[in-house]
Write a structure and sequence with these properties.
Blueprint (H helix, E strand, L loop, with lengths): L35 E3 L3 E6 L5 E8 L1 E6 L4 E12 L5 H4 L2 E2 L4 E5 L1 H11 L19 H12 L5 H9 L1 E6 L3 H4 L4 E3 L2 H16 L1
Parallel strand pairs: 1-3, 4-9
Antiparallel strand pairs: 1-6, 2-3, 4-5, 5-7, 7-8, 8-9
């Protein structure tokens, strides 16, 4: 028995069974879930209906993540899966699926921010870091203009101290072979932080 995506096997809303007027068809076929894990990149092409190719990611360790409020997208390393609304088993097995909440490496975003604004990120002030190289007058002027309307969410700023940012996967790793997403901000970030705190206490 293969995996079928038909609805003939389902009961009616009243609870009655539907008569089986035909057998399974190839165009109703489904496949095993990819269950993409964190690890060295391993992607397999799969032929679909009409000769179309899907890319089944079996393992991925990085992806393109977007920082929406700063309009900055960087390729970064995926560190861990921390929350999944649909199934806790996918968190335990560290499975990458769409809408999974993951931790990504903050370094590429920190480097971009410090280069773009000329100011440090994080609540902790580092004293062991080397003194910045001399900047030209034009660069100082550019940084001053950018810092005029600068605002960063305190919750995101605090995450830079740990070197990890919470992000949501928006692509489908089992279908397109990529794990891309966006950095959580604002109300959405607060919501998931509360959810994870509640889960730890339980």
């Amino acid at each position: 028995m293969g995996i079928s995506r038909d609805s003939r096997h389902k009961h009616r809303r009243t609870g009655g069974t539907k008569p089986p007027y035909r057998k399974k068809r190839k165009f109703e076929m489904g496949r095993q879930a990819a269950m993409t894990k964190i690890g060295g990149k391993r992607v397999r092409p799969v032929r679909g209906r009409g000769g179309n190719i899907k890319y089944r990611a079996l393992r991925l360790d990085s992806g393109n993540f977007s920082w929406g409020s700063e309009v900055c997208t960087r390729k970064t390393r995926i560190i861990d899966v921390v929350y999944n609304a649909s199934n806790n088993e996918l968190v335990r097995t560290k499975t990458l699926v769409k809408n999974a909440i993951v931790q990504v490496d903050a370094t590429p975003f920190r480097q971009w921010y410090e280069n773009h604004y000329g100011s440090k990120l994080g609540k902790k002030v580092r004293t062991d870091e080397p003194v910045d190289a001399k900047k030209s007058f034009a660069v100082k002027k550019k940084h001053a203009e950018r810092q005029r309307d600068l605002f960063i969410d305190p919750n995101i700023n605090a995450q830079f101290d740990t070197g990890r940012l919470l992000a949501c996967v928006s692509s489908r790793p089992g279908q397109c072979g990529r794990c891309d997403g966006y950095i959580l901000e604002g109300k959405e970030l607060e919501f998931y932080v509360k959810k994870m705190v509640k889960k730890r206490k339980a």
